[in-house]
Amino acid sequence: MSIVIRDVREHELDSVLALNNNAGLAILPLDSARVHDFFERAEYFRVAERDGNLAGFLVGFGSGAGHDSSNYAWFQERYPDFFYIDRIVVASRRRGGGVGRAFYADVQSYAELRYPQLACEVFLDHGADPALLFHGSFDFREVGQHVMPGVQVRASMLMKELCSYPWVLETYRGQLPDTAWTRPRRFTPASAKRSTGT
């Protein structure tokens, strides 16, 4: 029963939307337009597959992305260079089975080649202890709190130093080797494929 982490496919966006909106109060709801916007713009948008079924997803943005989240803006005002986990959702039947840990191992291996820090938040108003413990086990530390305007949700703002980044930066000077696992992840919408004939 292995977990496969891979780039999302456009035809899976409706399933991603359903996963998100069934996740409960620990995650903000999305609409179809927002999920498609993530697909078009996110630097990292991957899904977990277990036993041939979608088990979760993770969306992330680098610090230069201009992402329009107030939590992202909070980090951007305080830190010059980071990778931001916008959201991670694991299907309720898959929680506690290692999917979240597999995602965090994958996103860290992506981010530590490109950014010195990994940022995320945990909502504090709806039984946050399991999520805080999970993030603490990955060496995240609270660097502040933020109340999200509009929804009035209080979030613990978490940051993790990526200790491999200085070595990668010094060794490769921004020119990573061209291998499958170091290439930037880019998603090509079907509309763009049609217009370019690919």
From TrEMBL:
InterPro entries: Acyl_CoA_acyltransferase (IPR016181), GNAT_dom (IPR000182), UCP028520 (IPR016890). GO terms for molecular function: acyltransferase activity, transferring groups other than amino-acyl groups. Residues 3-164 form the N-acetyltransferase domain. This is Acetyltransferase. It comes from Pseudoxanthomonas spadix (strain BD-a59). The lineage of its organism: Bacteria, Pseudomonadati, Pseudomonadota, Gammaproteobacteria, Lysobacterales.
